[in-house]
Write a structure and sequence with these properties.
Pfam families: Sof1 (PF04158), WD40 (PF00400)
Number of strands: 26
CATH topology of the largest domain: Methylamine Dehydrogenase, Chain H
Distance between the termini: 44 Å
Strand order of the largest sheet: 11-12-13-14-26
CATH class of the largest domain: Mainly Beta
Order of helices and strands: EEEEEEEEEEEEEEEEEEEEEEEEEHHHHE
InterPro entries: Sof1, WD40/YVTN_repeat-like_dom_sf, WD40_repeat_dom_sf, WD40_rpt, WD_repeat_DCAF13/WDSOF1
Number of helices: 4
Protein name: DCA13 factor
CATH superfamily of the largest domain: YVTN repeat-like/Quinoprotein amine dehydrogenase
Shape: globular
Helix content: 10-25%
GO biological process, one term: maturation of SSU-rRNA from tricistronic rRNA transcript (SSU-rRNA, 5.8S rRNA, LSU-rRNA)
Number of domains: 2
Oligomer: single chain
Radius of gyration: 22 Å
CATH architecture of the largest domain: 7 Propeller
Subcellular location: Nucleus, Nucleolus
């Protein structure tokens, strides 16, 4: 049912607890930094804090705290070190766990905010995505917004790199992901282009070297941070639009939730053997990995390493988009050829998608 929260035991693959959390949809959920409790927000305009442990025999399933807000909240995230959390809806509210009203409310523009995320390293920094195509950065200490970048299309969510303080990746409606350095928002560090439909969620690996993205095109992809194309794509016949995705803290698995109401568990490294490895197995795997790296640019090795089977729908859409991209490039070349020199400037791919940066 849509107003429930379920807690799962991943090793046994069983649901161990079901909570009737909210009236209406549960819009957001986050754990406290110590792991003893978690928070949920829903369509009933409430924020609730729950114990992570199951209630004792005969004890009722009730929240520790309930805060009644004024508007519907669309997302929530907890501070990484302090008893502070942030919610978003019509504005970003910063809450102290002990109080029933927000410490401060941050707003810049008048549109609904879809997600808010705390920076895991510089813990006083927050990032939020609004439906007016903005990515806004806030400083909790100053109680004011810092700056915002406006893109061509709406950003659905963002995720901070857990190893590099100023780097974050945004999942956009225009099928791309953008990795930004928050100090230089004029152009992204990297544009990641492989999905063929809107990107709905993104999450970093604990090493900070890769991230996983979930898309409306019924697939999830793993991107290296410094590469424009994905190293891996996961899909199944039954998996529909993928709404949310998470990378586990042991860097071994990826969890995704999709439209057909299933949670799927994937290996972060598809060919990795699960379980205990014998020393000789480990040595052989390392040796094979080094061989792959050494000969990665050999045409036949590269073809094998890069080939992935894709569903027909995605394959056809990739082909179609390649044709469209080529047509746009040809049109621009023709326009430049038949125009006054300098009147049609060269715009790099990284700057094409940025409308403005406001400070």
């Amino acid at each position: 049912c849509f107003h429930q929260v379920k807690i799962w035991n991943l090793t046994k693959r069983q649901c161990i607890r079901t909570i009737q959390a909210h009236e209406g949809f549960v819009r957001g959920m986050c754990a406290r930094f110590c792991g003893t409790s978690f928070f949920t927000v829903g369509d009933d305009k409430t924020v609730k804090q729950w114990k992570m442990e199951s209630p004792e025999y005969g004890e009722e399933e009730e929240p520790i705290h309930t805060i009644l807000g004024k508007t519907v909240y669309t997302g929530i995230d907890h501070h990484w070190k302090e008893p502070v959390f942030a919610t978003c809806g019509h504005q970003v509210d910063i809450w102290d766990e002990q109080r029933t009203s927000p410490k401060c409310s941050l707003t810049w523009g008048f549109d609904s905010i879809s997600s808010v995320k705390f920076n895991p390293i510089e813990t006083y920094l927050l990032g939020s995505c609004a439906s007016d195509r903005n990515i806004v950065l806030y400083d909790m200490r100053k109680s004011t917004p810092l700056k915002k970048v406006i893109l061509n299309m709406r950003t659905n969510t963002l995720c901070w790199n857990p190893m590099e303080a100023f780097i974050f990746t945004a999942a956009n409606e225009d099928y791309n992901l953008y990795t930004f350095d928050m100090r230089f928002l004029e152009s992204p560090v990297m544009v990641h282009m492989d999905h063929v439909s809107a990107v709905l969620d993104v999450d970093y690996s604990p090493t900070g070297k890769e991230f996983v993205s979930a898309s409306f095109d019924k697939s999830i992809r793993i991107f290296p941070v410094d590469k424009g194309h994905s190293r891996e794509v996961y899909h199944t016949k039954r998996m529909q639009h993928v709404i949310t995705v998470k990378w586990t803290s042991d860097n071994k698995y990826i969890l995704c939730g999709s439209d057909e109401m299933n949670i799927r568990l994937w290996k972060a490294n598809a060919s990795e053997k699960l379980g205990v490895l014998a020393p000789r197995e480990k040595a052989a795997m390392n040796y094979n990995q080094k061989l792959k790296e050494k000969f990665q640019f050999h045409p036949q090795i590269r073809r094998i390493a890069q080939h992935r089977h894709l569903p027909k729908s995605i394959y056809c859409q990739i082909k179609e988009q390649r044709i469209m991209r080529e047509a746009r490039r040809r049109k621009e070349l023709n326009r430049r050829k038949h125009s006054k020199p300098g009147s049609v400037p060269f715009v790099p791919e990284r700057k094409k998608h940025i409308v403005a940066v406001v400070k």
